[in-house]
Amino acid sequence: MATHRAARTGPSAAPESAPEPALREGLDPRAELSEFLRTRRARLKPADVGLADHSGRRRVPGLRREELAQLAGVSVAYYTRFEQSNARNVSREVLDAISRVLKLSDAEHAHLLRLAQPKRHQRHPEPPRQQVRPAVLELLTAMEGVPAYVWGRRADVLAWNQTASALFGDWAARAPQERNWARITFLDPASRKLFTDWESKAYDVVGQLRFGAGLHADDSLLASLIGELSLKSEDFRRLWAAHDVKKKTHGTMRLSHPLVGKLTLRYETLALPGDQEQSLTTYHAEPGSPSEEALRLLASWGADATKERPAGTPQ
């Protein structure tokens, strides 16, 4: 059985790293709001909201401002000011109406409220470093046959068990600032081989970063991470520009593991009490499936690797 040291904590996104100069002060909620609304309009067609399109081919895709304003029950001038971040004290009723017309998801609706009402949400210039509670570390060790890890507000992997390390790679061998799902997904070529549907994984990671950016617009470390990825990854720039928002959730993931081959796993993500920005994610296979047997093999190999390491070697 893996020892308690198999579940390890890591710092929350390289505090010693200086932010990218252009993003040193964090993200601009006004610019974020404008781009978010524009991209939400662009993804809708008139027919999606019950309107007939008699104008032929449109120069710009999506709903026009005047169409959205009409459906939301506000004037075109007022909505235009709002989309350009020039309207103040927009009521919750108006925001709810705009959200309804744009068919926003729950995560997108929450994101809109934070961007449109920044003064109504308590913010910290620099969120405190996240620490994983000892009881959670014990839980990870107790779940040794189940791949499980804790991750935080910037997609940092904060703690994990040995089976998760066997499944996703040796996180202990990475520098603390590299234990980050966004950096791994976009900057580590091995991730494109591991995740069979890499585009879906990348989309989820970016959506979760965008959701976090709405919560902590003044987080310079998050802004630094976004700046780094924007400079180094064309795929990240493309997905970030879409302004899609996602919460950590559940679903199915398909992997192509270098040791055990193809895996189909289900995952669940649960918010941890005490810090709602820390989440525990676990993976399991369908009972009796080849993937379940592959997970057993990985758990066994991970336990053997733990035993064989010399004392003091990171696990």
TrEMBL record:
Compositionally biased spans, kind Low complexity: 11-21
Alphabetized GO MF terms: DNA binding
Keywords from the UniProt entry: DNA-binding
Domain HTH cro/C1-type, chain residue ranges per copy: 62-109
Gene3D superfamilies, per database record: 3.30.450.180, lambda repressor-like DNA-binding domains
Entry-linked InterPro entries: Cro/C1-type_HTH, Lambda_DNA-bd_dom_sf, MLTR_LBD
Ranges where the record places region Disordered: 1-30
SUPFAM superfamilies: lambda repressor-like DNA-binding domains (SSF47413)
Protein name: DNA-binding protein
